Amino acid sequence: MANPLRRFTFDLDLGRSASEPKQTFSETQFSEATADARQEGYAQGYSDGENSASVLAARALATAAENIAARGVEMAAALDDARAETLRDAVGLAASVGRKLAASLIARYPLAEIEALIAECLSTIDNAPHLVIRCDPALADAVKEIATARMATSSFAGRLVVMGDPEVAMGDCRIEWVDGGLVRDMSAISSEIDKRIAAYVAARGAARREEN
């Protein structure tokens, strides 16, 4: 007689044939599989971390390069400014020394430049009716003697007028005739020197910037 309870024992694996053996893992195999998984995970994590570090290092290097480039530009500009300032100081010092030497020479030889100017005028104003010379009052008599002597060796036959003018500085003079005149003014000459120095320094600075 068949056992009526056998149909309810549920001891069959419906997904596997009766002859297929069940797959089982020993504790050693499980440990080895776990270790392999752990090693694989560590290797992947290390690789990801290394890639992240490389990206961060590249970014840091790029930032550092940008900072160095910016500092380089700043240093170059500062160097150009220093060079320009040095040039201005050097040229300014030379001009200052030149002014002092000129003032010293004028103090020692106040008539030298005036005589040269008179000689230049008398060689070009043959038909002028008169010649007026304005100078420092202290030099009026000496200037008149110089002009008279120069007239004797020139073709100028007009009237000579020498006037002491307190507004004319020592060593300066103004020579006037009907259709012209000449002026020697150390103050104006000094201003012109300053303008030329400034133009020279500016031109050198522009040239250096173009080279860079």
Automatic annotation (TrEMBL):
<keyword id="KW-0969">Cilium</keyword>
<keyword id="KW-0282">Flagellum</keyword>
<feature type="compositionally biased region" description="Polar residues">
    <location>
        <begin position="20"/>
        <end position="32"/>
    </location>
</feature>
<feature type="region of interest" description="Disordered">
    <location>
        <begin position="20"/>
        <end position="39"/>
    </location>
</feature>
<protein>
    <submittedName>
        <fullName>Flagellar assembly protein H</fullName>
    </submittedName>
</protein>
<dbReference type="InterPro" id="IPR051472">
    <property type="entry name" value="T3SS_Stator/FliH"/>
</dbReference>
<dbReference type="GO" id="GO:0005829">
    <property type="term" value="C:cytosol"/>
</dbReference>
<keyword id="KW-0966">Cell projection</keyword>
